Amino acid sequence: MSRMDRPAPLDPAYDWLTADCLDVAPKLLGWELVSHAGGLETAGRIVECEAYHGLEDPASHAFRGPTKRTAPMFEAGGHVYVYLSYGIHTCMNIVTGQAGEGQAILLRAIEPTAGLEVMARRRGTTDPRNLASGPGKLTQALGVGLELSGTRLGETLFLRPPSDPHDQALVVTGPRVGITRALHHPWRFYLRNNPHVSRR
DNA sequence: GTCAAGATTAGT
DNA sequence: CTAATCTTGACG
After folding, report:
1. Which of A54, A129, A155, A174 has the CB geometry, 3.0–4.6 Å to A102, for a possible disulfide?
2. Residues of chain A with pLDDT under 50
3. CATH number of the domain at A14-161+170-191, please?
4. What is the residue extent of each domain of chain A?
């Protein structure tokens, strides 16, 4: 019996994620991120994210080439990359670009839209502004763990198109948060005046 | 083998 | 401002 080790083709609905991360990141705002992790549905609109430009970006985990941890970053756009931050928090990215480029977009905040009670239980708070505002809080609220690194969108995590087209007019850029290199790039993208964005 | 740094968060 | 907490990646 030969096993079919070739992965199933990525859902064509996610093909647009193979574009450059700097093009994808602003467009990602307003999309709804849906999680079925743990057999429970939770979801929220993406209101803040940051682009990491692969091999050319000193602030990117992919800067020094693929490693065991960062291997998913070098898959084609539409994959998921999750890592452990400061030994405590997990952060999730959506991989973009072509295979081999190492691009990814860190999801920093969502505005909860479904499964609020589940999120509240996981997070230990009911304040909707504090459920998933921050990369570590977002993964905790959605039940996203390291085991999802290397999976693809369409399996446990899904994207649904923006419900409000008006969001695109509210996109703001600025320097990325929490890094020490390549500080000058305005590669953080968020929705102006949205109360769920992690920092002002 | 050893060690410094880190895409964060909660609490003082 | 700092502690918590631990993996990665660089160096030898």
Report:
1. A54
2. 1
3. 3.10.300.10
4. 14-161+170-191
